[in-house]
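Per your request, structure below.
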């Protein structure tokens, strides 16, 4: 295989492990640990987060908790990992250093569209006692405002016919039914996606689809946190230089990581606490903290940054006035909107988030964070606004984030360049905007009419409507730079 400068480098695999630096080798050897976890979602985040925690847990405390990871859509990564004996590397990047490790916790990889029956069969395997998911918000097919399962044609076909399942709800339901028929024992289904009360929502999805939750199935809530940008050619080149072999499944991430887990596992679990995870009885305060003070701020940077022409989140944070605005968003809107975990200051947590976002070597693209905004906005921003309005406050800075999303949805940056609307509701959003002529008042009215995005508490609130319209008018007239220039620290 061609490497940098035309040199030939070997591929990462079991056969080439001896050629990589000792300190970068896996803590557990692939193929020696039986599978105990089925994971849906073979993306970069899982590989840099749960796969790392699980390897560390097994290295510290043992256990047969190898992961069979399933790609719900594309097959390319399955092919890459198969060729690499399921090995991949994770590079932790900060401004001062880069540390790389090869992870060996994957016991298998599967491609759901190619063989959904095999994935359903894994649910029925008694050795599988935990199912985890990182499939993004939209894959749950749940209304982001109400939390109800959206029973579109694909979902209904999965739930009412014998065809191979094509959706995540379909895979879950077929798998649980197969497990019940096989009498394979209890199991935990663990959502690791950024959904509010994700355990309860996943339970509600299963209950809506089946009418009741099968016996012996638990739904632990979780909060996950690590910034993991999309893999680039630079990611692969950096891994190749550090390892001395080519890794086509390499990922890069910030050094920080966190996992808070509700400890309800009827058939056991890895010793994740030995890997640094927090096991608790109540995840919800941690969820709100992260969704509002990290994800909400992330979305603010994504929309305002993309409008201003910034390619990365770090660049957006450097815009004049951006940091003072976000500090006020955190202190005045987010911090008073909920009760944080004991001993945690929301303002201090928010400041640490801003420092993480400023990491210059984590090139998290604004357009990547801006994807699927209709699914993310309710839990990241709108819940904060509703709680502040219930308290009689006027959440001015959160209204600016909503206005930025609306302007972003219009499809043009401040310099006139086209912006992509990569969103499951793109058609409905464009249809709503079509008759507005771009006038702020009409845009706000049209988009507030999207009931699957904006709850009635927001859509019918005159104060919120006026705040968003005021900011949207400012963004239209002055752009992001001119609007932020009015913010005082």
């Amino acid at each position: 295989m061609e490497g940098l400068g035309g040199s030939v480098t070997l591929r990462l695999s079991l056969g080439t492990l001896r050629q990589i630096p000792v300190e970068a080798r896996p803590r557990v050897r692939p193929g020696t640990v039986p599978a105990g976890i089925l994971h849906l979602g073979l993306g970069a985040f899982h590989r840099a987060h749960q796969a790392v925690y699980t390897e560390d847990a097994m290295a510290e405390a043992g256990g047969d908790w190898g992961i069979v990871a399933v790609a719900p859509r594309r097959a390319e990564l399955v092919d890459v990992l198969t060729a690499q004996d399921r090995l991949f590397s994770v590079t932790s990047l900060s401004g001062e250093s880069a540390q790389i490790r090869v992870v060996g916790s994957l016991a298998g990889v599967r491609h759901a569209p190619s063989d959904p029956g095999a994935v359903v069969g894994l649910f029925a395997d008694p050795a599988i006692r935990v199912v985890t998911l990182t499939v993004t918000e939209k894959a749950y097919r749940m209304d982001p405002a109400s939390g109800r399962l959206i029973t579109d044609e694909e979902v209904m076909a999965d739930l009412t016919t014998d065809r191979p399942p094509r959706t995540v709800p379909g895979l879950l339901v077929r798998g649980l039914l197969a497990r019940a028929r096989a009498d394979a024992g209890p199991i935990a289904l663990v959502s690791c996606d950024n959904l509010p009360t994700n355990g309860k929502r996943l339970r509600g999805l299963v209950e809506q689809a089946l009418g009741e939750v099968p016996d012996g199935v638990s739904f632990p809530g979780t909060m996950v946190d690590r910034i993991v940008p999309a893999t680039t050619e630079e990611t692969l080149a950096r891994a190749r230089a550090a390892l001395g072999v080519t890794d086509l499944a390499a990922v890069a991430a910030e050094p920080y990581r966190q996992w808070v887990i509700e400890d309800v596992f009827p058939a056991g679990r890895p010793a994740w606490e030995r890997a640094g995870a927090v096991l608790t009885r109540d995840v919800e305060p941690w969820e709100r903290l992260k969704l509002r003070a990290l994800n909400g701020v992330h979305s603010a940077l994504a929309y305002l940054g993309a409008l201003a022409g910034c390619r990365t989140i770090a660049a957006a944070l450097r815009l004049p006035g951006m940091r003072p605005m976000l500090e006020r968003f955190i202190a005045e809107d987010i911090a008073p909107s909920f009760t944080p975990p004991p001993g945690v200051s929301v303002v201090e947590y928010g400041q640490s988030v801003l420092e993480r976002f400023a990491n210059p070597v984590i090139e998290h693209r604004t357009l990547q964070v801006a994807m699927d905004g209709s699914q993310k906005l309710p839990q990241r921003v709108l819940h904060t606004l509703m709680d502040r309005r219930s308290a009689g406050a006027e959440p001015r800075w959160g209204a600016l984030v909503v206005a930025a999303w609306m302007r972003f949805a219009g499809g043009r940056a401040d310099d006139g360049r086209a912006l992509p609307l990569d969103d499951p509701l793109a058609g409905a959003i464009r249809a709503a905007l079509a008759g507005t002529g771009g006038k702020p008042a009409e845009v706000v009215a049209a988009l507030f009419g999207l009931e699957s995005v904006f709850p009635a508490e927001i859509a019918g609130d005159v104060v919120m409507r006026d705040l968003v319209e005021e900011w949207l008018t400012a963004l239209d007239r002055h752009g992001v730079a001119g609007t932020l220039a009015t913010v005082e620290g």
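The chain has a mean pLDDT of 94.

Regards,
D.
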